[in-house]
Amino acid sequence: MKQFATAVFFLIVGILLVPVAGLIYLNYGHPPVAVADAAFPMEAAVVHNPLHHRMEAENAGNSPVPVNEATLVEGANVYATQCAFCHGAPNKPSKVGANTYPSVPQLWERHHDGKVVGVSDDPAGETYWKVKNGIRLTGMPSYQKVITDEQMWEVSNLLATADKPMPDSVTKILAEIPQN
């Protein structure tokens, strides 16, 4: 009986010791808190996997906003005022976005394969979800109370077609975005 009681005691101490040690480390240790610090072990698994599962579960589906010159112009205007500061513009990467943690994707740069531009390989519904809800621990804010639902779809459609030729009116708006 004494061995059982000792085992239970050490089990309880072990269960309590791990969270206490974690709190001591977070309060008095040196966890990575600066942008230049390396990530926590398994940080990507803790943040990215649940994000993708949640986006799949709450799939926004196809855009109810048609993709045409007028809606792409509106999307470019929204992008210029709300997104470009962090995500850059064509041939104008954001210095702010490059100096955040995690770094902000530059949505007008081609991927290493040369085909995909920004998030043009993602469905517009996925980009819409990110714009609407934001992403914790990344600096991506929720725009749900900042812009209209239609504007969120317009900018999402714009980014979904970023790898395709744009109308001159859209290209002009994007070219006028200042380098930050």
What attributes does this structure have?
180 residues; mainly alpha; Cytochrome Bc1 Complex, Chain D, domain 2
Explain how this protein is built.
The chain is elongated, with a radius of gyration of 22 Å. The protein has a domain at 69-175: Cytochrome Bc1 Complex, Chain D, domain 2 (Orthogonal Bundle), CATH 1.10.760.10. It contains 8 helices and no strands. It has helices at residues 2-28, 43-57, 69-82, 84-87, 95-98, 124-133, 149-160, 168-175.
Topology:
Blueprint: H1 2-28, H2 43-57, H3 69-82, H4 84-87, H5 95-98, H6 124-133, H7 149-160, H8 168-175
Distance between the termini: 71 Å
State mean pLDDT (0 to 100 scale).
90
Order of helices and strands: HHHHHHHH
Question: Per the principal axes of the C-alpha atoms, what is the gross shape?
Answer: elongated
As residue ranges, the low-confidence spans are: none
Instruction: Outline the biggest β-sheet.
Output: none
As for the CATH topology of the domain at 69-175, it is: Cytochrome Bc1 Complex, Chain D, domain 2
Number of strands: 0
Strand content: under 5%
| Helical run tally | 8
* CATH homologous superfamily grouping of the domain at 69-175: Cytochrome c-like domain
Helix percent band: 40-55%
